[in-house]
Q: What sequence folds into this?
């Protein structure tokens, strides 16, 4: 068992420590002695992009099944244990990882760790529970499909990345969920839900030694600690992606058109991501951004208009989302293309760069004001990065972005072929002019 200090903190607060337990299980903590709550996350380095075709949808399926029961607790006992002390327990699935988490009072930390460890290590995954949750997941897919603002992002990824694991929906499809058997799901669970793939992150009024003791006890009780395993290193490569000039139209009789126009961008470890973040904030990151001003404030063409970025191990996205009346979609797309062209040709102003940096700095710091967000930061960092970058260093990297770097990133990303996804009453309307 080895323990290292990842960040020394200040005046006893913000100390981040890491211990590797026998078998490769990692425990990272951050101390916040002035709060009375604790957030606990169990991060598994497996996401929807890791699924083979016969396991499509299994990652998210497991997110449901792990709360259905273990040898010591049924579904009601799992939820009641945490809710009965005023806490919360939940989970989420992403493309490259899954997280099970709880937030409780500091005095209830032992129970939170015990329940989450029980769920993650000892799920029964019975055939009966599989059939029960299959129906729930199909309902979730149907609910998701009823929201075109969600579906358009999914369709954008599918068109951008093609028929690859990273381009497929996290939830899976109706067909893949119906095809999944109990044995396939259990096989997936047993392969990946192991200590080398797992990070336990805890933030709040805790001591690192106490957390390590509680985690070790819970995993030993489950028979999941020990062996010769070592932590699985961060995923730094993959199939990647090339820019695609494609259009995907989903014809629906909606009252509002939803569109995403964008392209591939940088991976999560690319140093240029800071300049891209500044560019994104200036172009569509808030009410003062170019797209919001041009589309909503000056012309009243849409209620929601913004740009976004997403980063993965080996690729990323930059995109623009707008929801507007179907009759306005051509005008909106024309403005989007004009603004993209203008940014590439003229870059953005010093004032816009300053506001972009301010948005990034404020968003980062204000987003770390609670135990849950800090727990997520250290847990995700341990899972997907080589090192934990201190907040002050992140702020310094943002401040160091130069106009020349933003200009270079704008030319590189926004000059690429574009991909467009549109949902609305368009039949076989041709949108190819907007992606050329």
A:
């Amino acid at each position: 068992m080895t323990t290292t200090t990842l960040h020394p903190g200040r005046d006893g607060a913000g100390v981040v420590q890491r211990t590797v337990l026998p078998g490769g299980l990692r425990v990272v903590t951050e101390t916040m002695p002035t709060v009375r709550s604790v957030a606990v996350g169990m991060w598994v380095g497996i996401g929807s992009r890791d699924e083979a075709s016969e396991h499509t949808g299994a990652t998210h399926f497991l997110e449901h099944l792990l709360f259905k029961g273990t040898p010591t607790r049924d579904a009601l006992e799992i939820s009641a244990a945490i809710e009965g002390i005023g806490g919360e327990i939940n989970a989420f699935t992403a493309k490259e990882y899954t997280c099970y988490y709880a937030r409780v009072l500091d005095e209830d930390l032992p129970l939170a760790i015990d329940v989450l460890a029980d769920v993650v290590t000892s799920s029964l995954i019975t055939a009966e529970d599989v059939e029960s949750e299959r129906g729930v997941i199909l309902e979730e897919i149907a609910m998701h499909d009823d929201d075109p603002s969600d579906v358009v992002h999914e369709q954008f990824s599918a068109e951008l990345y093609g028929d690859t694991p990273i381009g497929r929906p996290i939830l899976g499809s109706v067909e893949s969920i119906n095809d999944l058997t109990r044995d396939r799901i259990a096989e997936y669970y047993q392969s990946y839900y192991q200590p080398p793939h797992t990070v336990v992150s805890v933030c709040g009024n805790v001591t690192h030694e106490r957390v390590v003791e509680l985690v070790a006890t819970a995993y030993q009780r489950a028979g999941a600690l020990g062996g010769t395993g070592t932590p699985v290193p961060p995923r730094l490569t993959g199939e990647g992606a090339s820019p695609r000039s494609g259009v995907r139209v989903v014809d629906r009789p909606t009252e509002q058109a939803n569109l995403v126009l964008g392209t591939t961008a940088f991976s999560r470890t690319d140093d240029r991501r800071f300049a891209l973040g500044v560019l994104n904030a200036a172009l569509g990151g808030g009410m003062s951004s170019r797209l919001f001003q041009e589309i909503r404030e000056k012309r009243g063409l849409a209620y929601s208009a913004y740009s976004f970025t997403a980063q993965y191990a080996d690729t990323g996205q930059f995109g623009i989302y707008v929801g507007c009346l179907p009759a306005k979609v051509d005008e909106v797309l024309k403005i989007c293309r004009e603004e993209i062209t203008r940014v590439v040709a003229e870059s953005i102003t010093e004032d816009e760069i300053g506001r972009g940096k301010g948005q990034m700095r404020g968003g980062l710091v204000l987003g770390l004001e609670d135990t849950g967000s800090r727990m997520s930061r250290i847990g995700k960092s341990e899972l997907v990065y080589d090192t934990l970058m201190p907040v002050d260093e992140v702020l310094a990297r943002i401040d160091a972005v130069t106009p020349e770097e933003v200009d270079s990133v704008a030319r590189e990303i926004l000059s690429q072929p574009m991909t467009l996804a549109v949902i609305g009453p368009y039949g076989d309307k041709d949108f190819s002019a907007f992606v050329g």
About this structure: Residues 361 and 395 are 6 Å apart (CA to CA). The longest strand covers residues 302-311. The chain has 15 helices and twelve strands.
